[in-house]
Design goal:
567 residues, alpha+beta, ibrinogen binding protein from staphylococcus aureus fold, six-stranded antiparallel β-sheet, five-stranded antiparallel β-sheet
Length: 567
Amino acid sequence: MAFDGIVLRQLVTELNDLLLGGRVNKIYQPTKTEVVLTVRNKRQNYPLLISIHPVYTRMHVTDQAFSNPSEPPMFCMVLRKHLQGATIEKIEQEGLERVVKMEFRGRNEIGDEMKKTLMIELMGKHSNVILLNEEQTYITTCLKLVPASQNRFRTLLPGAEYVLPPAQDKLNMLEVAAEDVVKKLDFNQGQLDRQLMGILLGISRPLAQEIVHEAGLGGPDTYLAALDTFKKRLKAGESDPAIYDCQKEDYHVLPLSHLDCPVRHFDSVSDMLAAFYQNKADRDRVRQVAGDIYRKLKNDLDKLDRKIHIHERTLQKAQQAEKQQKFGELLTAHMHLVKRGDESIEVLDYYDPEQKMIRIPLDSEKTPSENAQHYFKQYRKLVRAQTKAKAELQRAHADQTYIEQVMQQIDHANDDDLEAIREELIAEGLLKKKETKKKRKKVKPKPDRFVTSDGTPVYVGKNNLQNEYVTHRMASKEHIWLHTLDIPGSHVIIADDNPSDETILEAAEIAAYYSKGRGSASVPVDYTKVKHVKKPSGAKPGFVTYTDQKTVFVTPIEKTILKKHQS
């Protein structure tokens, strides 16, 4: 991923146009690694997201809605105290480093004017957001605390002196001639893209590969020309924000002509970054938040596997029930031939069409009658165990299917979906209820909406509450219902009584994507009219039976499916 110094340079230019002179209205901290400053400027609100996530480090304006904690973290409260109501006076980048300085002017509690500085360091796992005092010398607070024991170069703690990250021994293309860069290249060593990354400040590998591509197979002269072109683009502020949908998706603000794959262009750097990171970061955040749920469900699934194995062994053992009954009846019929102390007896098996002889083991300590009663007792015991094991096995399989379904739903859940899943599991007795000060308001289910190529709306339930809503409340009886065959997945509704074959296939691809089989090449998907879908009495949430179905086989392609997503 290419959040490099060049991308940040274009972003800072964009942020100056949007935010300079704006007033900070609200400050939120949705997660441990994300801060959102809502800036009011030119009669519009601009939520500025700053993320120090070790993998998805970035900052940009966003229209994403975040779920905020009921009580703001300490860092958020300190930012509100110092920055809420303040005006943004300056936004600048430190050279081509991934460090941004934002200067604010506001008033303190007694009305005196004050200046504050926010240092935003976007350097992967070393990222941080640091609030400085008025003189920009000491740290007021920082999002990630780094004591001296972790970093000998600088300490990031309240009250410590602020020191910029150590400078890299690289050349700034805006300040040096192309000849200086070419002199440092070793053409015999090869891997010139990696060499350029080690020489030039602020460029990522895709951009280094683009310079090598423009230079071609020539020597120093061609690289001199390619670097001159790159410098001119950089100084001119050339910008073409785009996402390159290759096998490994990437992006940049400068054209990457060496990538031969579909390209999505954007009007702004923020739009590009939001489109690239949002789903990835959301999934990662949900996985972290849902970690306790997932682990609990995985443990329950392991217990169910062991329980199913025990019940299957019981059923296998219960197959001996008829044999025990036959021994008892044969022994009763031939009681006159048995003597106490006998260890076995051979009698005529009149159940056998060929009337063969059969040997029956006996307990020499028991009377003939007691031996017969023992076999009848074993028969009744096995029959009872069989009946109970069948019921328990059916219940265990239903629980197994339900848990697998919920685990699949977590993979596609957002924050609201996850909260609904948690509440459902509490109601089902699979999770313990946590004590909270505020009760969560009941909200109307909001299933995901897609639109197929011919404009037909398709709705997807991403948790069991939404599944039951789209199937039993929102859809009409003549609408088409889809679900993966024998694979945990979402309920999908085509809001049309008579959709085209193309629409059915597109909806089936969506159903396959929102299922456990999303990574498979050929996923079976059943579809039928909603009137043929029933929920059995007392069934688990989201469980249904259906008839009159047809089956299609599809291959879900994420990029194609997400393009149809509307909300």
